[in-house]
Amino acid sequence: MVEEEKQTDTEEEKSDELEEPAGGEAGPGAGQPGDNADVQAGEAAPEAEAESLLRENERLKMEVQENIDKVLRATAELDNIRKRASREIEKARKYALEGFIDELLPVIDSMELGINASQAEEDIESLREGMDLTLKKFFDCLDRVGVKVIDPAGEKFDPQWHEAVLMQEFEGSDSGIVMTVMQKGYELNGRLVRPAKVIVAK
Q: What is the pLDDT of residues 123-180, one digit of tens each?
């Protein structure tokens, strides 16, 4: 009788153990939907990062291309400026004397008129006046283009502007004074073109 009761208790315990998972503890399949969501989220993150990197790469490519275009345009503009400057320099070199020639033409016209008039002119004084007028026109022309005459008679000798061809004693004159100008000098806008050749008192 006692053995039958023990056997009955054992069978009831086994029956209780089999029924426990249904009401209490979770079985092996519990929690699977949440796990799937985590997996899907983990797979989506690298894809989003890759897409972001691709967009950034395209943006950088466009920016680089824009900078290349700017450099090319700037290079072309600099080349055009260089070519224009080269043409202007060449033009200035070729026609630098155009203004001076224009100033000189009236002098040439006056000289030609004087030569033609001298063939029938017997009045020497009139010829002289005509030559003086022509010479004045010529000096006026030089003055307008910045050429100045160096005529230092009676001035202190200045080796920067004068060339002494002879030093001679002159009674009543101080030493170093220019007594005679053998050849006038010329300067252009303050720069010496030719020194005046002079005789200087000792």
A: 778 778 888 888 888 888 888 888 999 999 999 999 999 999 999 988 888 899 999 9
Q: What is the pTM of this model?
A: 0.52
Residues 6+ apart with CB under 8 A from 126: 117
Determine the straight-line distance between the first and last CA of the chain, rounded to whole angstroms. 170
Q: 146-202, which class in CATH?
A: mainly beta
Distant-in-sequence, close-in-space partners of 170: CB < 8 Å, separation ≥ 6: 177, 179, 201, 202
Cα 74 to Cα 60, 69, 87: the distances in Å are 21, 9, 20
Q: Where are the domains of the chain?
A: 146-202
